[in-house]
């Protein structure tokens, strides 16, 4: 039986802005079975319920596959593209996205289309950091 771990985080509220930029960093632990990062965007209202502004999903499998490829190939030079993902009807990408080897980490810059809303995008930078090599040995 597999247990599912769901982690959540909320950004700070940015008032009176039609194009907010958060520049916040969150760290989540994922397992080899991790599949999808789910995002929900809300408009915070002071005197009534918050309005849902849309949602987006990002498959983490291309990022995990890029990290596996990097491990198989060994050392990659700075900026090496490990995997490219293009927008398709079954993903939420607004533009092409690629996983790259940057500063010793697998990094993917992503633009996602918001769904269930007239328009809107979310820009993310996802880093896959292998913490297993930092764990103390027993």
From TrEMBL:
Its main location: membrane. It comes from the Eukaryota. GO terms for cellular component: nucleus; plasma membrane. The keyword Methyltransferase does not apply. The keyword Methyltransferase does not apply. Keywords: Abscisic acid signaling pathway, Calcium, Cell membrane, GTPase activation, Lipid-binding, Membrane, Metal-binding, Nucleus. SMART domains: C2. Residues 1-73 form the C2 domain. It is found in: Cell membrane; Nucleus. InterPro entries: C2_dom (IPR000008), C2_domain_sf (IPR035892), CAR1-11 (IPR044562). Gene3D superfamilies: C2 domain. One of its GO terms (biological process) is abscisic acid-activated signaling pathway. GO terms for molecular function: GTPase activator activity; lipid binding; metal ion binding. PANTHER family: PROTEIN C2-DOMAIN ABA-RELATED 11, PROTEIN C2-DOMAIN ABA-RELATED 4. Belongs to the plant CAR protein family. This is C2 domain-containing protein. The lineage of its organism: Eukaryota, Viridiplantae, Streptophyta, Embryophyta, Tracheophyta.
